[in-house]
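Z., the sequence and structure:
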Amino acid sequence: MPARNPYPTAAAFMPDRLTMSALREAVQHCEGCPLYANATQAVFGEGKLGSDVMLVGETPGDQEDLAGAPFVGPAGKLLDRALDEAGIDRSKTYVTNAVKHFKWRSRGARRIHDKPTWTEQMACRPWVEAEIALVKPRALVLMGATAAQSLLGKSFRVTQNRGTPLDSDLAELVTATIHPSAVLRSDDREAMFAGLVADLRIAR
């Protein structure tokens, strides 16, 4: 028997009518898991309904938490470069995260990203499922383990299945790749960046 999620989950905070504007407003009141308590705000997705490509990252970072927008920090700038090289116009994509609140731990005066637990991921899943349902992307790109596992299951391994079409009914094409922040942490950024671009090209 699967373990019971100890949190109320986002389901209790979803609006009655699923529109993007209603979701954006409702997410700011979500207390579906403890992460809301230490975050500045919820960070919802950005982009147009009907975007062919939807990109799902893991969680907001420090700068995203402060700005209230996804992928505006260093990882976001690197993603912009990777999308450009892959031939994908970011302005025509929908970009979001699997978890909407920034999870962090202190390191001196800095707030360092901390990986959400499985139950925190599952508590937040109704938001990203609603975004997928409204955007209806043709291609869904899951960036990083948290994003991929949140939507494809806990046993999914990005390192083993990246850059290939995956068996999923979430979109016409579903694929996974590394998170742009993994490139920034790598000792071989050039090779990691090239790999990210190659993975993104299958969504083009």
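The CA atoms of residues 11 and 126 lie 6 Å apart. The chain has a mean pLDDT of 95.

Let me know what you think.
H.
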